[in-house]
Design a protein that fits this description.
Layout lengths: L7 E2 L2 H5 L6 E7 L3 E10 L3 E2 L5 E9 L5 E7 L8 E4 L35 H14 L2 E3 L7 E4 L4 E4 L5 E3 L16 H18 L7 H9 L17 H7 L2 E6 L2 E6 L11 H13 L4 H11 L4 H11 L10 H6 L3 H11 L5 H11 L5 H7 L3 H10 L5 H28 L3 H15 L8 H17 L13 H31 L7 H24 L5 H31 L9 H8 L11 H17 L3 H13 L1
Antiparallel strand pairs: 1-7, 2-3, 2-7, 3-5, 4-5, 5-6, 8-11, 9-10, 12-13
Helix pairs in contact: 2-3, 3-4, 3-16, 6-11, 6-14, 7-8, 11-13, 14-15, 15-17, 17-18, 17-19, 18-19, 18-22, 19-21, 21-22
Length: 630
């Protein structure tokens, strides 16, 4: 075993600046002792439950091939698992030299933004292979001859089953599927495969993705950016205070047991994130905070929250000198002093709850106006600190909020409450729209990969076109699909800037196509709903017409996003994109069959019919033509 400290010990600041591919030693780990591992990703500096700085590091243990995740707190770093940069082996007798080495060059990365743009359509072929394995189908070498690109759909399609073996996939057989590939085509295909494998295969086979990449490439093994890791789990916090998500019919609500002191006390930061999640989900925040305060009558933070819901910040109903002399303002003054005395960052987030309970019935008004995310945005915009600190804190809060909302969506989905699950999932997408787009390419991929991973984790059984559909559930899905478009587009735009500046060699085609496919699925479900049920009553049609107009608007934004990505490939110094080659190849076809033109024409016909005659049978007929074009 290597001696403790065999190398240059890294400071907390140096850890936060690590790059993918750097090889480290980890010591003082009670589980592994001393181990070698390679860095996969390092998060931006965030804030831990004690108000100190923290980084989350993901690496691959070389001896085991398994993934390791470390949450390193600046406050406890000296006493916890410490990291050392490996030193070169001595020339004689394998002795470890005493002089530290400089920075190690990062390993090559294998993300979508790192592949050649002229081969970028192959990335989605790799995704198709991963999804095929997910349904337990093994693909034998030579399968590329069996698939064709449908450039209207933005998807590869299997046209021949010659190389498929059903119910035969196993992780140890995965590498053999790539046996006939070499060079850049192999890199691109594996990049797409690994991107999707993290989402659909990794939950079933932990550590599978990086082990596969290590089998296919020699050292230095390329690093595939994994989805953003989950930073917060709301369910243990709810359970600690005897609370859980239940349903009254299809309406979500919190269910409480008799108050009791928690067996494991959640950290202050986790308690605030759980409360923020319930607020954003428009659940019964007041009853939750009362339950928390009753369970912990002596703890500072729950009692501050209890004072807020009691209305201690409300202005007295009668004012003037006499009430001041009688002390009517003292509870308000004491509470403000307690709020002002809270450490950063707890104090910043507590201002949100002070705003929620700053006046009688304000929470009910916020819920009625569906203004929860506007309140969250206003709070994040007013966070104290430097611009860098505010950006970091915003990322931390929104990551935790999205994790909490996604957990609620999964919990509702497990109870087959599809409508509620969709609403929670859409709230998570709206939270993502409040995020400053990361300035690191790997992080940009990680956030969007997380979004797609969450979609795969929900089954949503109420959304199958050939089974009975519920109107409210279908329309809830249309809202989710529209929010997907709005969430993905800013990432595509910032990556487009990096692409024209030469910082990356490709764009986020897979996410752009994925968001467009969510919108197409919304149109399919709407048309199927209209085939199953009679047209809605006249008094509902104007509202539905407006909703469908918005849906078509989102759809056009998705196509505009793809067209903007195509135009960027004409930028001087950029290699012509594979997607651009596909559109150029279609120039000899009829106008309606050109790249996405047919869908634009047909969706415009739906829109024009809505404007002219409202939501009626003719609109449904045009919608059917649009769906048929898919």
């Amino acid at each position: 075993m290597m001696q403790r400290g065999s190398g240059k010990q890294l400071t907390f600041e140096q850890v936060s600046q690590l790059r993918p591919g750097e090889k480290l030693l980890q010591t003082d780990d009670s589980l592994r002792g001393v181990c070698k591992f390679s860095v996969v990703s390092v998060s931006q500096i965030t804030v831990d439950s004690d108000g100190g700085r923290q980084v989350n590091l993901v690496g691959t243990v070389e001896e085991e091939g398994s993934a390791v995740e470390l949450s390193l707190s600046e406050k406890h770093y000296a006493q916890g698992p410490r990291l050392y940069r490996q030193q070169p082996a001595a020339k004689e007798r394998g002795e470890v030299p005493t002089e530290p080495i400089g920075d190690v060059s990062p390993r090559p990365t294998l993300g979508e933004l790192d592949i050649p743009s002229d081969l970028d359509t192959g990335f989605l072929a790799g995704e198709l292979l991963a999804v095929t394995n997910w349904v337990r189908v093994l693909v034998h070498p030579g399968f590329l001859n069996d698939i064709r690109m449908n450039y209207h759909l933005g998807n590869w399609m299997i046209c021949d089953a010659e190389h498929l073996e059903f119910e035969a996939f196993a992780p140890e057989l995965a590498a053999g599927q790539f046996a006939d590939l070499r060079g850049e085509p192999l890199r691109v295909l594996v990049a797409g495969y690994a991107h999707k494998a993290y989402q659909v295969l990794e939950p079933r086979y932990p550590g599978f993705t990086q082990r596969l990449v290590a089998q296919l490439f020699p050292e230095p093994v390329p690093v595939v950016p994994p989805p953003r890791p989950q930073l917060f789990d709301v369910e243990p916090v709810l359970a600690a205070y005897g609370s859980s998500l239940g349903f009254d019919g299809s309406e979500p609500r919190l269910v409480f047991t008799a108050p009791a002191a928690p067996v494991t006390t959640p950290a202050d930061w986790d308690l605030l994130l759980a409360s923020l999640t319930l607020f954003a989900a428009q659940l019964d925040l007041t009853s939750w905070l009362k339950q928390v305060a009753t369970c912990e009558p002596t703890r500072e933070l729950p009692q501050i929250l209890a004072a807020l819901i009691r209305g201690d910040l409300h202005e007295p109903e009668w004012s003037g000198l006499l009430p001041r002399l009688l002390g009517s303002y003292r509870p308000q003054q004491r509470l403000r002093e307690r709020l002002d005395g809270q450490p950063y960052p707890l104090g910043g987030l507590l201002t949100l709850f002070a705003e929620i309970y700053g006046a009688p019935h304000r929470l009910e008004d916020i819920y009625a106006r569906r203004a929860t995310m506007r309140i969250v945005r206003a709070t994040l915009d007013q966070l104290p600190g430097s611009p860098t600190d505010r950006r970091t804190m915003r990322h931390t809060v929104l990551a935790g909020l999205m994790d909490g909302l996604d957990q609620l969506a999964r919990t509702a989905d497990k109870q087959q409450q599809t409508h509620a699950s969709l609403i929670f999932a859409q709230y998570s997408l709206i939270a993502l729209q409040l995020l400053p787009v990361p300035n690191n390419p790997a992080q940009a991929e990680a956030w969007l990969a997380r979004l797609q991973s969450e979609r795969h984790r929900c089954q949503w059984p109420g959304l199958i076109a050939d089974k009975p559909l519920d109107a409210s559930t279908v329309w809830a899905y249309t809202g989710y699909a529209g929010s997907t478009i709005l969430s993905v587009r800013p990432f595509c735009e910032v990556v487009g800037t990096w692409y024209t500046e030469g910082r990356v060699t490709n764009q986020l085609w897979s996410s752009a196509w994925w968001s467009l496919e969510q919108m197409r699925e919304a149109f399919r479900l709407l048309y199927a709903l209209n085939q199953q049920q009679p047209l809605p009553a006249e008094d509902q049609r104007s509202t539905l017409a407006l909703m469908l107009e918005h849906l078509i608007s989102h759809y056009h934004k998705a196509i505009q996003n793809l067209n903007a990505m195509l135009q960027r490939t004409a930028h001087p110094g950029c290699r012509l994109s594979g997607w651009t080659n596909l559109t150029l190849a279609s120039e000899q076809t009829t106008e309606e069959n050109k790249f996405l033109i047919g869908e634009i024409i047909l969706s415009a016909a739906v829109f024009n019919e809505l404007r002219a005659h409202g939501y009626g049978e003719e609109t449904v007929r045009h919608l059917g033509k649009l769906v048929a074009s898919f």
